[in-house]
Design a protein that fits this description.
By secondary structure, the chain is α/β, with parallel strands linked by helices. It has a single domain, classed as Lambda Exonuclease, Chain A. The chain has helices at about 25-30, 35-40, 50-60, 120-135, 160-180, 200, 205-210, 210-220, and strands at about 20-25, 65-70, 75-85, 90-100, 105-110, 140-145, 150-155. Strands 1, 2, 3, 4, 5, 6 and 7 form a 7-stranded mixed β-sheet that branches. A hairpin with a 2-residue loop joins strand 2 and strand 3 (about 75-85). Helix 1 (about 25-30) packs antiparallel against helix 4 (about 120-135) and helix 4 (about 120-135) crosses helix 5 (about 160-180). The chain is globular. The protein starts with about 20 loop residues before the first strand and ends with a helix. Mean pLDDT is about 80; it is low at about 1-20 and about 50-55.
Length: about 220
């Protein structure tokens, strides 16, 4: 796939590439917290913490651009992706291609944490699958998430439910970018604890600020 690639992410933070393309990694930000997404991809601010640093170290190990062939399976790393249909671009950590008629394409995304019950990592993987399907005209039915804390793969079915969730996330992210309005903080405060933007976001201050509610009530 790498020989057909057209775009690479503009930075390690996954910032929006152009007005027409959204970085695939940005979808995970939106699914996790729309305010975090807006701060990074609309206001273009970024901050590091231990978790983001560990994630970068992990991906430096993975993003080797090496190609391996083991039996019937070809392993491609740091694969560039693009979707004209969905307006996405970026890259994926690992693509396994098993020879056959048709060949089997299996995306793998590496994450520093551990498996989650939430869907945001799966959304990023599914977006990669959508790009592969468009670029290679092949179905992608499953992939995997590899988590550093547990050192194992978690299989992911690229089914209709996940596809619909991913498409709605793409739409939501694009609407937010076009509006240029940064949302209020998440109701779920637990997501703020590990966020590198906490000191910039100031979620507790915004939650206690009633200005927006007051303006809405008086109809300004």
């Amino acid at each position: 796939m790498s020989e057909n690639s057209a775009l690479n992410p503009s930075s390690s933070t996954g910032l929006k590439l152009t007005e027409d393309y959204i970085a695939i990694s940005a979808l995970q930000h939106y699914a996790y917290c729309p305010r975090q997404f807006a701060l990074i991809h609309v206001e273009q601010v970024w901050a590091e913490n231990r978790f983001t640093a560990e994630g970068q170290v992990l991906h430096q190990r993975v993003d080797s651009n090496e190609v391996e062939q083991r039996g019937r399976v070809r392993y491609e790393r740091s694969v560039s992706l693009i979707s004209q249909e969905h307006g996405l671009a970026g890259k994926m950590d690992l693509l396994e291609i098993e020879s056959g008629e048709p060949p089997r394409y299996f995306p793998v995304e590496y994450k520093r944490g551990k498996p989650k019950i939430e869907q945001w990592d799966k959304i990023q993987l599914c977006a990669q699958a959508l790009c592969i399907e468009e670029m290679r005209s092949v179905p992608v039915k499953e992939g995997a998430l590899w988590y550093w804390e547990v050192r194992r793969r978690e299989p992911v079915a690229i089914d209709l439910q996940l596809r619909n969730l991913t498409l709605s996330t793409i739409t939501g992210a694009r609407v937010l970018i076009e509006s240029g309005v940064t949302p209020t903080p998440q109701v779920d405060k637990t997501r703020c604890r590990a966020c590198s933007l906490k000191d910039i976001c100031l979620p507790d201050a915004f939650r206690s600020d009633k200005t927006r509610q007051y303006v809405a009530e008086i109809g300004v």
